[in-house]
Amino acid sequence: MAVLVVVLGAVLFAGLAATSWAPFVAKAQGPDSIARNPVNSALKNTPPTPFYTPPDPLPEGLPGTVIKSEPMVDAPPGIRATRIMYLSTSASGEPTAVTGMIVEPDAPAGPVGRPVVAFAHGTTGTARQCAPSIAPFIDQTTGTHMWEARIRPLVNQGYAVAAADYEGEGAPGNPVYMLKATEAHNVLDSLRAAVYLAPERIDASKMAIYGHSQGGHASLSAASLAPEYAPELQLRGAVVSAPGMIPPIPLALESLVSNPGNAEESAIRASYVLNLMSSWTTAFPDELSPSDLLTPQGVETMALTQEYCHDALVEELTQPFDTYVKSDPSENILNVVSQNMPVDRRVDMPVLMLQGMKDTDVSPQLTQATTQALCQLGTVVDTFFTENDTHETLVWAARPAELDWIADRFDGIRAPNSCGGQQ
User: Fold this and answer.
1) Residues 295 and 351 placed together within one structural domain of the fold
2) Is there a single domain that holds both residue 239 and residue 267?
3) Structural domain count of the chain
4) Is residue 7 a part of any domain in this protein?
């Protein structure tokens, strides 16, 4: 498995020169003024309500079984939203309680129900209060950042959206940031939960997955693992937007430490790494320790990931990137990286890969490398890359392409393939 990291690293640093694959590159740019709107800054602390405490012991049931639900009475007009807690599978393979929400138009679903999209959310943090379902309709929360820009456009298309919080966010549990299997389980089980909750309103023959950033990693992970974990789900495709793929360490860290970006970019990247190490050292305690990647101050600062959500944590990280992250990490991390890269097999469903080339949060070159790796494995991949978009502006610039691509998959139209030499 460690070979994957070497292969991706070789592709990344070779500049993709030896492949016939080439992405469609658009010049359009999303509105930076909207992307940076303070409404979307997730700085409000939203502690979980009693709903987020699971029963002890957990009830028996299959993954996706809804443990409890409640209407979200503050949903906007025309929107039906239901907060849910459902059974999923932890990193250790044990049943666990995960929370989330099902959001759909408040209108008749028609005789066969409406298609459903599993929404995999981007980085909000790993603490319980970072769950998007806690307060998605209140400004400056982790939830509204996901609702307004990402979920609502899908609902406006007439779809039901199943949005998992991920284990440890909302309900108690371990952090699962960039943990391939658990993210995939949580996302796939949210689709099962949607059918369980409202079978008369869901068209179970039309399902798709959408995710941006961390959610892009989760979307691709779910698409990759669906045949073995949830073979009954009739998935038509997966949208993978600016996926938080893991760089080929240690080469990328040497580059990051020498060129960490401005103060804000440095703090954002440090927050990602701290949440990553909190998750991975919990899931792989025999393989990895915090000091394998973090400095002594970084090890101490990692505890803040359970106190602050991502945007608030970024404001706390006022020191240079190399204050927290080593430039010479232990090679122990290579095996853990390889276990969490969802590019070790052909993905059975078509994938839409999107990336802004001015992104400073996610490496555009690594998204290119990931796309080439998927092509080489035989995956059908359509691409939408833009010259001028950042991590956030891509959400607006790519929206028409994403919505059209999902609609075409639900209509049974064959997916385009940007992989050279494939049909």
Assistant:
1) no
2) no
3) 2
4) no
The amino acid occupying position 366 is: L
Q: What is the DSSP letter of 167?
A: T
- Reply yes or no: is the peptide bond before residue 250 cis, omega within 30 of 0: yes
Q: Where are the alpha helices (DSSP H) in 200-303?
A: 214-229, 251-258, 263-283, 296-301
Asked if residues 236 and 206 have their Cβ atoms less than 8 Å apart, the reply is: yes
Measured CA angle at 312 (ends 311, 318), to 5 deg: 100
Per residue in 305-329, pLDDT tens?
Answer: 999 999 999 999 999 999 999 988 8
The DSSP element (H or E) to which 181 belongs, if any, is: helix 180-197
The first and second tokens of residue 45, run together, are: 């602390």
The position carrying tokens 């991920």 is 166
Give per-residue pLDDT as tens, 169-187: 999 999 999 999 999 999 9
Residue with tokens 């959310």: 121
100 contacts 52 by C-beta, under 8 angstroms: no
Peptide bond into 57 cis (omega under 30): yes
Q: Which domain holds residue 229?
A: 23-245+342-410
Centre a 10 Å sphere on the Cβ of residue 188 and count the other Cβ atoms it contains: 28
